[in-house]
Amino acid sequence: MDLKDILVISGFGGLFKFISQGRNGIIVESFASKKRTFVSAATKVSSLNEIAIFTDTEEVSLSDVFKSIFQKENGGKTIDPKSSNDELKNFMAEILPNYDKERVYVSDIKKLVIWYGILLDNKLLVFEEEEKKESTEKEPAVEIPKAKSLPEKDKKTTIKKTAQKPTTTSKTPPAKKAQMMTRKKTG
Predict the structure, then answer these.
(1) Chain segment 109-164, per-residue pLDDT in tens
(2) Element housing 116 (H / E)
(3) If residue 19 lies in a helix (H) or strand (E), which one and from where to where?
(4) How far apart are CA 86 and CA 101, in angstroms?
(5) Would you call 104 exposed, middle or buried from its count of C-beta atoms within 10 A (0-12, 13-18, 19+)?
(6) Which residues pair with 61 in a beta bridge?
């Protein structure tokens, strides 16, 4: 699962897909409304692959957390983000038992659950092992047929046809040629 083109934009709800680079910002598309929007360079934009969850020992990447949720829920939907604070904290403890309870707030857990739901609805939760398995299953060895050679008779006619084509090497545009010809006649 590649999260680099999936963006979180300060002041906007939900997730966005990177479309292209503009002059003074970027163009993104909302996963919810499918509308494209210009986001100025002054706006804070973060890619999901830059975001991590604090634990007692280190930071865990968001893709690893999504994978843990996906495995816990067997690829299905997860807890409702409007659940009580205690339910959300218990859910987070199941997903990431050593998460830092002082630095990871309930609002962060709600965002995590909402983002997981958006990615699941858009079928973007495909993990590396699954991608490798699918690519090996879908790409059987294909034998490329060899090019057939032309009979001698066809080779000769092909050569003759190409030799008959006229070639022009003049780089002067036709309008310039016309001007040059009129100058010669009058002068």
Answers:
(1) 999 999 999 999 988 887 655 445 444 555 554 444 444 555 555 444 444 444 44
(2) helix 106-121
(3) strand 16-21
(4) 12
(5) middle
(6) 52
